[in-house]
Amino acid sequence: MNTLYYGDCLSVMQNMKMGSVDLVYLDPPFNSNRDYNAIYTDETGRPLPDQIEAFNDLWELSEERQRAIRMMPVLMRDYGVDDDIVEFWKIWMNALRNTQPRLLAYLSYMTERLLPLRSLLKPTGSIYLHCDPTASHYIKVMMDGIFGHANFRNEIYWYYYNKMHDSRKRLFPKATDSILFYVKDHKADFTFNQIKEYRDEPVRQLMRVKKDGKIVNARDADGRLMYQVKTDKTVDNVWRIPALVPASSERLGYPTQKPVKLLERIIEASSNPGDVVFDPFCGCATTIEAAHKLGREWIGIDIAIHAIKRVAKVRLEDRLGLKEGVDFKVEGVPHSLEGAQDLWERDKHHFQKWAIEQIDGFVTSRKTADGGIDGRLYFSLPDVKDLQSMVLEVKGGKNVNVNVVRDLRGVLERDQALMAGLIVMEDLGERKTRNFRQEMGEAGDLNVNGVQYPRMQMLTVPEILAGKRFLTPSVARGKVVTQPMLPLG
């Protein structure tokens, strides 16, 4: 069945069947200063202040990332990459470590995910990787090493001629993205359907024929040149497709949303009806919509719960009329305490991310001197320009004691946040809960227009799954919201 997966594609791909995919399209996060991984709802209409910082944290050479880089040669050999390429990787990575550490972090992240993608492709399969000039040349080198230079078909230039440009920059305005097109095996009968475009007006062209091994102009019996009228033309590697403008009916609010026409062209060219199309960074599901319209099966993965639960499902259900459980299924999203506990056991970091995003929070890796801040929940106050925040901490284990509350209270007092929220796996028992509430109560209340909001609050996973949320003030559409829809019990 067509499937949406919530999670890191690296983990999800480990459980997918090898040689099961006909076509891969991926539009991964570029190595830039914007958050391309997730879309976060902000009813105030103001930008979230930590988005840029949170994205940059992803490309830091953390201890975990450096460990992955050290293990990369072993991983590459396990996937059958030539030893010469592995040795080149070592030299290249050592050079980047001191000169461009963030780029190194990004490339190692991408390489980890490109390796299993090749294994998932059928022998007749193809992969299209969407990128921009920031790192496209580095990515192509890695694609050559993993997929083989002989399997490179094209670098496609998507020319979005209608995009607005900033004329203040001292450079030629950027109007193209690159799409790298590789096949699994150029010697196999890989799928490729030549794409034609219809002209606005017919064109009269000279006819050409092959004679004595050469291509020459065709002539009739009297030696006169022969012509033909062409109403179509073969699509080359420069694709003139407009970008989505803000007023486009396709727009879903996703920062890097691509037009359906772009994906339809890729899918038509390198797959046939009934084939499986796979997008490991599916975002707002443009690939899925195009695949469905063209009669293909599909698989999509995204690491953001907002993409899976809101944007992608809205697109599938509202725009395409598909029904979950009948036309597609969603995997990896906990719907019960048992599911949340299973996610905690499998991937503690991803459980933390799920819990924060489930209550509309924003995951951040920023730390304070007195402990970790796992995330923030933003809200606005009347007549206050900047967004305010509730700092969030997630504890999925069973051994949670009142010291956690005291530490979080210390973070609250020293951070610029007005509120703090603690998420725990399940009910702590009457006595412990009473102690927690008492400790939290000592932090006092936040008074907004006469409404009292506890500065420190706690939610359990069952409460979150039941729809309960932290009580925060908000200003939406110019109106002060003083009473939350779902009060805590």
UniProtKB/TrEMBL annotation:
GO molecular function: methyltransferase activity
Highest classification ranks of the organism: Bacteria, Pseudomonadati, Pseudomonadota, Alphaproteobacteria, Caulobacterales
Signal peptide: none
Enzyme class: transferase
Reactions it catalyzes: a 2'-deoxyadenosine in DNA + S-adenosyl-L-methionine = an N(6)-methyl-2'-deoxyadenosine in DNA + S-adenosyl-L-homocysteine + H(+)
Name of the protein this chain belongs to: site-specific DNA-methyltransferase (adenine-specific)
EC number assigned by the record: 2.1.1.72
Keyword annotations: Methyltransferase, S-adenosyl-L-methionine, Transferase
A biological-process GO annotation: methylation
Species in which this protein is naturally found: Brevundimonas balnearis
Database matches in Pfam families: N6_N4_Mtase (PF01555)
Entry's family note: Belongs to the N(4)/N(6)-methyltransferase family.
